[in-house]
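From the pipeline queue, job 12 of 40. The input is one protein chain; the requested action is below.

Action: predict structure.
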Amino acid sequence: MLAVPLVFSTCSSTQKTAHRSKKVNILWLFGEDIDPWMPVYGDSTVVTPNIDFLAQNGVTFTNCFSMSPVCSPARSGIFTGAMPTTIGTHNHRSGRTITKRLPSHVQVVPEIFKQHGYYTFSEGKDDFNWSYNWDDYWSGSYTEKKHFGKSGTGSWKNRKDGQPFFGVIELYGGKNNKKPASPISPDKVKVMPYYPDIPSVRQQIADHYNQIKVTDGEIGEIINELKKDGLYENTIIIFFSDNGYKLLRDKQFLYDAGLHMPMIISAPGNPKLLKKSGVREDLMSLLDLTATTLQLAKIKVPEYMESKDVFEKGYHRDFVIAARDRCDFTIDRIRAVRTTQFKYIKNFMTDRPLMQLQYRSHKPAVKAIFKANKEGIPFENEWLSDQRPAEELYDLKNDPFEVNNLANDPNYASKLKELRGILDQWIVSTNDQGQYPESKEQLKAVYDRYGERCINPEFAPFRTIN
C-alpha cells in the first residue's frame, strides 16, 4: 500500500527538480539611440502599449545612466562589464581597421553564456571596440562593413531543441526610418530650452517620438514571436538603450539627454522568473546590466567586472561615472559624475570648443541651429560658445536641462570640491585610459578614413606625412 504513494512522491520530486533546473532564456531588446520619452517615464506625448506592458510585468528603472554617450564605448562596456576607460575601449570605433585585442582577463557576455551551454545570437550590430572572431561569441551568420564592424543575422529559431538562449535584437530606435501609422506632428512637441524653437529642431524631436512608436510596435511583434515559438513563459526580456538621441547637444555629450536611458527588466510570460516588479528610482549605471543579466541566469559574475547586480541585496550607487573620448575624427576628453541631485562635468580639452567640427557639422539641422544662434533667436546657447569652461556643475533638481552652470558660484564651492575629488580619485583608482594618448596606429587609421576633417592637433604628424 505504501509503494504507490512513494513512487508518486519520487516522480513529483524529480519533475520539480527538472523544472527548477531549466535554464532561463535572456533576451536583450537593444533600442539604439533611444531617449526615455515614454509614458512609463512620465512623457505621454506618444502611447507605447508594449513598453507599458513590459513595465507592468517587471521592474522599471527611472534613473539609469549610460557610461558613455555614444554607441561603441557604451556597448563595449555593456558586453564586458567593465568601464571602457578601464579596459581601453573608450575611443569610438577603434579596432576596426587595425588589430586591437581585449586584455586577456576580460570576458564577453555571449562568450560566458556559451560556456554555460547557451545558444547565443545577435540580430544587429555589435559595435565592439576591439578585434574578435565572430564564432567565439555568436552562432549564426553575420555581415561586416569596413569601418562599422560586424552585424549578426541570428535568431533563437536555429538553436537545438530545448537549448536555452541569450540573444540580442537590435531595435534601430533613433536611427529607424520607418514611420508609424499615425505620426506625431512637430507642432505637438515641446522644445528644450537649450535649443532654438525652429522647424528643423521640432521636426527632429517629432521624428524621435515617431521612432519610439515604431520601436514599441517592434517589441510587440517580438513578444508575439516568443509566444508562437513556445518560449514566452521561460524568457526574461530586458529593454534598454546605449545612448541618447542624435540631437546636437544630446548624443556624444555628458548631459542627461545623452546619458539617461530606458531600462526595463521584465518577465511577462512568467513573473516567477523575476519575482520582482514595480519602479526603482535609485541610481543605476547602464554598466550594471552585465552583472544583472548573468545573475538572472544564475551565472557567476567574473571578479574583474565593475558591473553590479541591481537585484543584489544592498545594491547602491552614490554616483555614476560617464566618459566621452574620441568620437569619429573629433578628439575630446570629458568626464562626468552624476549623483541623485548634482552633475559635475570636467572638460579636459578647453583649447577646443564643445561644438568643434564633428560628424554632424555638415547636416542641415545642425547648420540651422548655428544660424538661429547667429540671428539672435533666444535660447540657452552658452554651449555653442567658442569658450569652454574647465568645469561644470548643475543642480539637477532645480535645473533638469543643465543650463545654469554653478561651478563659479561660491554657494556651491563645497559640492564642486566634493565631486571633483570623486572624479580625481576614480581616475587614479581605475587608471582611466583616457589620460593617455591614443596609439599612433589608430590615429593614422582615423586620419586615413576622414582626411581633411581631422583638424585636431593630434593629427598634425599625419598631415605632414601626406
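Job complete. The longest strand covers residues 25-31.
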